[in-house]
Amino acid sequence: MARDPYENCNYDIVGWKCTLDTCCLAQSSFNYLPSFGGNLFFAILFGLLIIPQGVVGFRRKPMGYAVGSIFGFLLELLGYIGRIMLSKDPFNGMGFWM
């Protein structure tokens, strides 16, 4: 069930002091709570795909392609870890910047 992002807005509180109890979702980085389960699934998937990509990439492709692919998987993994952090606390600045 979708949560109304403008429910219980309190603009008197400084943004870094907000929690789900004191502020609304519209004051967070997103207007919704990211799914914990879905983001955990994709974080595990991209984490596991780094290994075969590295093996196949370094054996059969040019070095630049292999390194670029692995860095791409690492950045995807970091993005999903940040979204997992935001699913618990949508006001977490570190999760947003990841």
Description:
The two termini are 27 Å apart. Helix 1 (36-60) packs antiparallel against helix 2 (63-88). This protein has helices at residues 36-60, 63-88, 93-97. The protein is 57% helix and 0% strand. It has a domain at 34-95. It contains three helices and no strands. The chain has 98 residues and is mainly α. The protein is elongated.
Question: How does the SSE layout of this entry go?
Answer:
Elements (H helix, E strand, L loop, with lengths): L35 H25 L2 H26 L4 H5 L1
Helix pairs in contact: 1-2
Précis, in short:
The chain has 3 helices and no strands. It has 98 residues and is mainly α.
Helix count, DSSP H or I runs of 4 or more residues: 3
Instruction: Please report which band the strand proportion falls in: under 5%, 5-15%, 15-25%, 25-35%, 35-45% or over 45%.
Output: under 5%
Helix proportion of residues, in percent? Answer: 55-70%
Oligomer: single chain
**Outline:** elongated
Subcellular location: Membrane
Keywords: Membrane, Transmembrane, Transmembrane helix
Membrane topology: Multi-pass membrane protein
Transmembrane segments: 40-58, 65-86
List its traits:
mainly alpha; 3 helices
